[in-house]
Sequence to fold (608 residues):
Amino acid sequence: MSAPAPSMFTPAAKATAEKLGLKMGRANLEEFAATLEELAKANPNIIAVTSDSRGSGKLAPFGKALPKQIVEVGIAEQNLVGITAGLAACGKKAFGVSPSCFLTARSLEQIKNDVCYSDVPAVLVGISSGTSYGALGTTHHSLHDLAVLRAINNLSIIVPADNFESRQTILAAAKATKPVFVRFGKASMYNLHKPETKFEVGKAITLREGNDVAFIANGETVVHAVLAATHLAERGIQSRVLSIHTVKPLDTEAILKAGRECKAVVTVEEHMVNGGLGEAVASTLLQAGACKPFRIVGIPDEETVPGAQADIFRHYGISMEGLSETALKLLK
Amino acid sequence: MTNHDLQIKACALRRAMLRLIVNAGAGHTGGGLSCLDILNVLYNRVLNVSPQTAASPTRDRYVQSKGHCVEALYAVLADRGFFPASDLDTVCHYQSHYVGHPTRHIPGVEMNTGALGHGLPICIGMALAGKMDSANYRVFTLLGDGELAEGSNWEAGLAAAHYKLDNLVAILDHNTLQITGHTRDVMSNEPLDEKWRAFGWEVRSVNGHDYAALTKALTEPSPGKPLFVIANTVKGKGVSFMENVAKWHHGVPSEAELKQALAELDAAEAKLKEAQ
Fold:
């Protein structure tokens, strides 16, 4: 019998979400799969490539509906990326879909050379990323992926926060003429955006305005920043919340604006603190001379604490309560 | 172009390759000489591609998985008119796109290669795309002996047979030497014919310097199966003191060695012409 999955949100955090009127959506991964299937039905050139990963990627319905538009390579991630690149080089809009932990480690060289250096418009989709696999342990976590991919030229890196951003990302990736990497988690996500929100690759979305502290976050951590901002507002602290869905190219304008206008900056990511969003933001601020009290909240450089994703988030302070405390300490 | 014409052309191509390696101050001389006849027959007889059709969706594709032997490819592509021969003077020079491995900056090059074990998976993607589009093009890749130790080749070996890619041809430049020495001593990989056959491929073993044999092996269809051509070659082929000597893997000839090599190739060409 498996242990019951702990909740990602404390009762207080749930109450805050309710007060904000946030509605729980589906997993970003499910949104991705549904969007891709919808696009592929209209465009036979869209091909999904999987490494025995159609189940984890929520692409089983895609496979059933469009059997000629899915290529199964078996558990062979290097082959998955090479084949995706070859398809893309011959005019296919190929989406290589595999758990981010394997995709961005085992086949990193294929990403670097076959996709990015060869400059083919392939889309690589890292599924069940970050600590989504929770208690399965470090083999299944991808806390290195953004760091290694940031160091590769010619790759857009997108980490959507909610269903809206996930859908918009796939719509954009399907039209991209350059390589794209997208990272999805598998937990159900609160919907954070209104449908009319403008989404543009490389442009941060401001979810809340405020000048005391700026939370700069991406992926499944953004909701916790939103809740922390609300929590802090009840204590008279006004927070700015940026969803930096695109890690590369980075929206340096929004980051600098936040860094210059706010008294402190907290970055939040489901990634090791080395080389991810936080260090990218720090580099942007420091090189522009915008030096403010600053903290990177993420997974520290240690063997990740065992537990479910919710346990891991809570342990490292990626929660309404944890982020509020970090901000308060910085503002002291 | 007859087999005899190709043999004569090969002398000129070997000279061009050696000159550009000396000018570049770097290069993979031994492997370039071993695979040159394969490239010669591909670009001048087998591949349905030319400078005029280099962007055609129905062109045949060639991806050089053993990218380090790019100098032979440069010599053949220049001769075939994909770019001016004078470009070869810039190989490995500052700000020249003619770097030491193939890149798509160079007309005629399909994919950037150089890290080993990448060509075959890429070609599977290309071959699958061709099948999906019911296009008639074929996809070719060239592998090296040492390269076969990369596990990605064997992942690809499974996939190509699984998808019955009879529009895919992998050619092994089987010179049996790699940088450290004999492949059998570094990491033995024989019997290659049995291995690839067991994976579900059609396997043909030929003399990789025999144009008639290469042509037959590369053009006869292999219905329902990908084709693996073991081209038995001599590393350093055509230059007496380079043949079967591992140190010429990436040895660059001195001026004196170049002079001797060119003289040998001139003599070989003259002999071929006499026999005409």
